[in-house]
Amino acid sequence: MAATTAAAGVGKASVPKSGAISKGYNFASTWEQNAPLTEQQQAAIVALSHAVAERPFPSNLAQEKVAGLENGLSISTKRSAEDSGAIDAVLVNTNQFYKWFTDLEAAMKSETEDKYQHYVRTLTERIQTCDTILHQVDETLELFNELQLQHQAVATKTKTLHDACDRLVVEKQRLIEFAESLRAKLNYFDELENVTTSFYSPSMNVAHENFLPLLKRVDDCISYVESNPQYAECNVYLVKFRQLQSRALGMIRSHVLSVLKNTSSQVQAAIRSSAGDKASVSEGVEASVIYVRFKAAANESD
């Protein structure tokens, strides 16, 4: 850079040459002599130098350049500005060089690190999103576990309820059978009122169609009560059933006597009528007539 070289020539008298810089220059010269570069490497260095030359200076150095122009400490070359558009600054001492280099390195580092910082922020956000999803998945799994436990509890309670219902059904069936058995036993005692009402009915007589079934029912009730004396008030019921039985037998006896009387009257009337026709009637004829009359009366009573 011509402007930089000229300015350096102007300030060379006032800035002494550093021993470290001289030593570094000598080392670089020796290195270049011992390890010469190929044309391809030199071309790459030239391309890199052009790329660096086209890079603008940081804003603070640009401001220092403006201030230096006002003080007469820097010169800008119109040709360099037209070719590269970069800002040329005159570095009059090592401090300015180190400051310029530090600012340039910081600017390059900031530009190169921006995209990586963006990647880091993006990855951090993605990691946070994944952590949130994992947390939600864990909460969902916990809810599923609680739901499974509740389902198992409900299934257990349902099975317990079914078992209890089965036991209740069995108990109900047992009670129904017990009630039916008890009802069958109590029917003998309940028949007392029904049989009493029927026997004391005005229309009831020996010739009635329900007389003999009622008498048989009374006999069954008496047999059952006599065979189960452990029941309460069985003696009272036994006495009442025997009273009904006696009444029925009395009705039968009265009916038989009535039939015999009617038959005897009819036989006597027949004998008297036959005696008027014939003076003497043999005993065999009289016996046959009496037999026929009693047989007819017996058939009527049946």
UniProtKB/TrEMBL annotation:
GO terms for cellular component: cis-Golgi network; Golgi transport complex; membrane. Residues 119-262 form the Conserved oligomeric Golgi complex subunit 3 N-terminal domain. One of its GO terms (biological process) is Golgi organization. Transmembrane segments: none annotated. It comes from the Eukaryota. This is Conserved oligomeric Golgi complex subunit 3 N-terminal domain-containing protein. It comes from Handroanthus impetiginosus.
